[in-house]
Structure prediction request, 142 residues.
Amino acid sequence: MTSPPQRPDLAAMLAPLLRETAAAELPVLEEHGLTMWGYSVLVALDRSSMRTQAALAEAIRADKTRIIPTLDELQAQGYIERRPDPDDRRVRLLAITESGRAVKDAAQTAIQRGEDRWLSKLSPTDRDAFLRALQQLTDAQP
Prediction:
């Protein structure tokens, strides 16, 4: 006979927090004129510019055809550039612009300031350990 689990499942612990943090991000993103997908695109492009649309979709785990309207909107706002790949003119290379980086940085700063509501419940040592562990789990994703 097996003993009962000693802790809740990860999804059971993370899901309520993820719902709350995502809900808290929406007004911040709206204030900066961004959607959640738009913000995700800018964050990904800021980490690694000049991605193809297909590589970007894979990086943010979105369907490549569904992000096209988001890319159109970000380009119209002047937040990204799309250029033909000189090696394959059917492919578009993406890059974040300086204004895209500025709006991403402003939104990210405001979002992280809001996250302090949850993180402040941890001691500084626990907070650092939590963020480090979360980063390791994120980096370990295929």
User: Anything to note?
Assistant: The longest strand covers residues 88-96. The helical segments are 10-31, 36-47, 53-59, 68-76, 98-119, 124-139.
